[in-house]
Amino acid sequence: MKQRFLKKPFINLMIGTDMKGQGGVATVISTYEECGFLSKHQVRLIITHSTNNRFGNAGALIRFGLAILQIIYLFMRFRVGLVHIHMSSRGSYQRKSLLVRLVKLLKGKVILHLHGGEFRDFYTYECGEQKKRHIRRTFEMVDKVLVLSSHWLAWSQEVLAYSEHVSVLYNAVPNLELNRDNVEKGRIAFLGRIGARKGAADLLRAFRIVKIRCPCAKLSIAGDGEIDTHQKLAQELCLTQDVDFLGWVSGEEKKALLAKTDIYCLPSYNEGFPMGVIEAMSAGIVVVASNVGGIPDAITDRQQGLLIDAGDTTALASSLCELIENRNLNQQYVLDAKRKFDENFSLHAIIPQLHSIYDGLLAK
Questions:
Q1: Within a domain: residue 178?
Q2: Structural domain boundaries enclosing 209
Q3: Do 117 and 191 fall within a single domain?
C-alpha cells in the first residue's frame, strides 16, 4: 500500500478566484501563472469564485461544491504537497475557512494568503466573540499565513496567540514598459471598484477644487461598482465635461490609459496592498494615495509620491495640484518610485521569496 502511495504523481494546489475575472486576487494568480510559477511548482488551480458568474447565488454555490469535490478527488488521486488558499473577508472567509478545515482533515499543508483590505473591519465590527475565535483558530491551524504589508503583520500579531508563522509577501506585477511620450499634463487616473471604500466620491469633490487651480486637469475613472451614483455626483459638481467613466478596463485598453496618465490617485479608506499603486510605480506614474493599509509600505510620503489622510479632500486636491504644477517634483518621485518598485515589488524581487516559502514547507 505504501509503495503504491509513493508512486502517485506529485502536485500542489492553489485555491482562489478565476484569474480571468476582475479584482486584485485574480491579478495576483494571473501574474503567478504568466511568470511560470504555477508550472514550476506543478500547481493545479481550483476556482471557488468568479466575478464572471452569470447564474447568481445558485451558480456560486454549485461552483463551490464542485471545488470541494475536486479537492477530495485530487487528494485521492495525487500526492498533494501543499494547498495555497487565497482569502479575503466575509463570504470569502466563510468559504475558505471551510476549505482550510477540509485540507487539514485530509492531512494537507496549508498556506493561507490574506488579501482583504477590509478584513480588520470585518473582524472587529462585524464578528461576535464566537466568530472571532473561529477566525483566530483558522489562522493558527494553518502552516503558513501570508499577509500583504507590515500593517497586516502588526494586526495579526495583535490578534493571534500564535503568529510566528505569519510573514509579509508583497504583491508583484510585471514591469510595465510604456511609451510615456504622450503623457497628458493633469490627467489623473483612478482604477478600482467605484464606491465609498475606495474614496471615489472624495476624489470627485477634490477634483472640483483642482479644476479651479489647474484648468488643464482631466480625470479618468476606470472600474466597476457604483458608476451611476458617481456619474450623478459628477453632474452635480458640474464636472461632466472633464471626467470620463470608462467602466472596467484591462489589457491594451488599460495600458493605453496608463500611458497618457500624469497622476495615479487612490484615496481609499482601507486597502490590502493595491496592485494599481505598484503598477503605477512600475509604469513611471507618480502616485497620490491615502495613508492606509499596505500603501505606506509602497509609497513613503514625499519620497515616492504623496500620501494624505483618507477623507481629507482639501489635502487631496492640494497634493494633486502640487504634482500637476511642479513637474520637477513629479519626475523626482517617479524616479524614486521606479527604483523602489524594482527592488521590492518586481517579479524578480517577489517570486524568489514565494519559491523559498514553497520549498521550505515542502521540505518539512
A1: no
A2: 187-344
A3: no
Residue 93 inside a domain? The answer is yes
| Mean pLDDT (10-residue bins), the chain, 364 residues | 66 92 86 96 92 73 93 97 95 95 98 92 96 98 97 96 96 92 96 95 98 98 96 97 95 95 97 94 98 96 98 98 98 98 96 98 93
210 in Cβ contact with 190 (< 8 Å):
no
Whether 57 and 147 share a structural domain = yes
Which alpha helices (DSSP H) does the chain contain, by range?
Answer: 2-6, 24-34, 37-40, 56-77, 91-105, 119-125, 129-141, 150-159, 200-213, 227-236, 251-260, 275-283, 295-298, 313-325, 327-344, 347-363
User: Are 53 and 80 a contacting pair, CB within 8 Å?
Assistant: no
Residues 59 and 110 reside in one and the same domain? yes
Query: 3-class SS at 268?
Result: coil
Q: Which amino acid is at 7?
A: K
Distance, in Å, from the CA atom of 89 to the CA atom of 123, rounded to the nearest integer, reads 8
CB-count burial class (<10 Å; 0-12, 13-18, 19+) for 346: buried
Residue 41 lies in a domain: yes
Q: Is 238 exposed, middle or buried (0-12, 13-18, 19+ CB in 10 A)?
A: exposed
CATH code of the domain containing 49? 3.40.50.2000
Regarding whether 326 and 358 lie in a shared domain, the answer is no
With vertex at residue 51, the alpha carbon angle to CA 66 and CA 279, rounded to the nearest 5 degrees, is 125
Longest CA–CA span in the chain (Å) reads: 77
Return the pLDDT at 20: 81
